[in-house]
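Q: what does this look like with pantoate bound?
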Amino acid sequence: MIVIKTIQEIRDRVGAWKKEGLSIGLVPTMGYLHEGHQSLIRKSAEQNDRTVVSVFVNPIQFGPNEDLETYPRDLERDRAAVEEAGGDLIFNPEPAEMYPDHFTSFIDTTETTELLCGAVRPVHFRGVCTVVGKLFNIVCPDRAYFGLKDAQQFATIRRFVRDLNFPVEIVACPIVRESDGLAKSSRNTYLSPAERKAAVILSKSLNLGRQAIEEGERDAGKVIDIITASLKSEPLARIDYVEAVDFGNIQRVGRIQGETLVAVAVYIGKTRLIDNFLINTEEKQ
Ligand code: PAF
């Protein structure tokens, strides 16, 4: 597995592929890859001639009291995971390569980043959009792949790509879960055995909300109450948010209709986990 560290080298390599007429898929990651990331790489390998996986723990998307220092890193493990899933190359720049001195330009978004994680992580999406925009300009992919576990991130990237005319197709991939329902995440490694058991409450509670909608409930407040009550039954869980929003603009909805995102963020011990489901329903008469 080739690992490239500099922007010039990756431009040369991808430029040569483009000259041969090959299509390029990009899977942006922060590394410590799991089966969720591998599903994105597999999808890209299916749809493109070459797949670039970026492995970069992006400092500007972490707030001052967040886990930038402790975020898990293991490039050797990532190399094997990319190879196994059919990726062709890893782009693994140092922070100074991506953010030279006096770096002062950012991609800032509104609307889709006001609520959910945007409300509690003020610099997060500016950091995500800026690094993703830079990766698009560096790699010039035909398609880029993002997991729906980070559904607000997906909606926000889709929006800035449209608003700023980036010539890239954004592909959404479904959430990959452990056998007990916990959404796969690099941050699951922070959980103690007792917390790991407790963490299943996120998907369990969301399933109750989904079931209520499938049985005809359309009042978003009632769905939120069902999920909240279930989350509160787990003593190790502390709710950050439970929200139902329109998936297009990530604004609150009163009724569940059209494409709705129902999302939670919950602390299990000190670890903040997110999960969600998307549901597309028409108003029942
Ligand atoms: O989803 C992530 O892992 C990150 O937010 C991303 C998209 C790789 C940007 O750093």
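The first helix runs from residue 7 to 19. The longest strand covers residues 258-268.
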